[in-house]
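User: Here's a protein and a ligand (succinic acid). What would the complex look like?
Assistant: Let me lay out the input and then the predicted complex.
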Amino acid sequence: MKVQPLTCNIGAELTGVSLAEAARNEDLFGAIKSELLKHKVLFLRDQDIARADHVAFARRFGDLEDHPVASSHPDHPDLVCIYKDETSPPDRYENSWHCDATWRDAPPMGAVLRCVACPPIGGDTMWANMAKAYADLPDHIKATIAGLKARHSIEATFGAKMPEDKRHALKAQYPDAEHPVVRTHPETGEKVLFVSGFATHFTNFHTSDNVRYGQDFAPGGANLLSYLIGRAAIPEYQVRWRWQPNSVAIWDNRCTQHYAVMDYEPCVRQMERAGIIGDKPF
Ligand code: SIN
């Protein structure tokens, strides 16, 4: 296996490896996992593997989860189908920086995404290194956000276009989660900036330290959250990947965000994702 870093801060391409083989080979899997911890997102080309191998490889990291809104493959319920084609809803959009499913109490540890079909040009995906984003924050911001928590909502995102009764039912099934704004990566120990597109507000900002009269510092909280969410957009933290059929990306969802670039309509783009269950951020 060869490892070629793609930028100075995030992402590496692996060559000379088959994920179908890695699904069955403990040492090879271990080598890939340690590269993932180092580079945060790994890319491979020409993985013409069976869906069962895709699932088996992802399962080596841990149990897999489905998605309450996106549908799963009929024969492989562990694969979420992110299809933009004649079967997808007409108003589907993808282009938002996010860390997957932070509306769960235990958001996914990572994901393995394989391209089934893609446009000849366009439809890239970008990832950002949120440990680097945290490390680069000015000291006074680090001091302000130490100990802050934020609410993460499926209702305000996937639920937003639903009729009210369905949106409320979704929220009843998946109540908003609360996570630290700065989490510690459970394997590398890195501190990570952990707010993205699903974060709606801080839950413990409005204290007597931050508010003197009425609401006077409350806009500061909203602006601070917006500033923090915007950090993923800094190019120095990013890698951008151009897809081909059978390209695969494996990412660590605990320390990255990603953004699927929606610049290719009306072309078809079909991706299949195995999401790996994670643990509660601390
Ligand atoms: C995702 O947001 O998990 C999928 C990204 C993509 O379709 O490129």
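Summary: The pocket of succinic acid is lined by residues 82, 94, 100, 113, 125, 258, 260, 271, 273 (CB under 6 Å).
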